[in-house]
Please model this.
Amino acid sequence: MKNPSELPDVRTILQATAFGVAGEAALDAACRLARVEHFKVATLLSAAGEQPDYLRLVVRGHIEVLARNSRGDEFAVGFITPGGWATWLACFMEQAPDNDFYSSASASCLALPVAGVRALCAEFPQMYPLIIRQIGRRMRLLIEWTGQSVLVEPVQRLAKLLHILVREQQVTAGSVTLHITQARLAGLARCSRQTANELIGVLETKGLVVCAYSAVEIPDVAALAEFADAAVG
Model:
């Protein structure tokens, strides 16, 4: 049982999302739909080929998006951090996702039933442009990462990945902590764990990151961004 003081304030959290921007009536409806979920261990939320029943907003921890190759090997293709949704597209696409969605350990989410979200959007159509902007923002980050990753040296490529993960949390300056293991970071960067460790070591030597247990601390987001983009343009 959670102490009530530890439970997230659903209305305050949703007010900062598209539901809040759409107006009080839409926010009220979203609050009635939302439930709080806590996961002590990594948990399968929805499997590849299945339509998700819930749209989830990450409050703490993260949601990992996994794919499999023809041999059955798993690798990470997405990492949804606090403030991110898993996923808006699933609410409106007829085809089920090709990926598994897992919560991290010690994660918390707000979950809204997909059917209810669809009905809410039909009632408040001003939601659609806001949702499209959310999807477009993630798409731009993906294109930026994909495009730059072939143009720069490996250490800058990893710095760019870290900066994109930071931007997914709506952080553009100051310091921030990414709660991600180096093994997961290696999966996202498409490199071996040994290579990821070596590259993180280079960034740490430059003062751009500080390694912690299951986390990477970034003392100056602007400095990381400057280094990541230095070879482009």
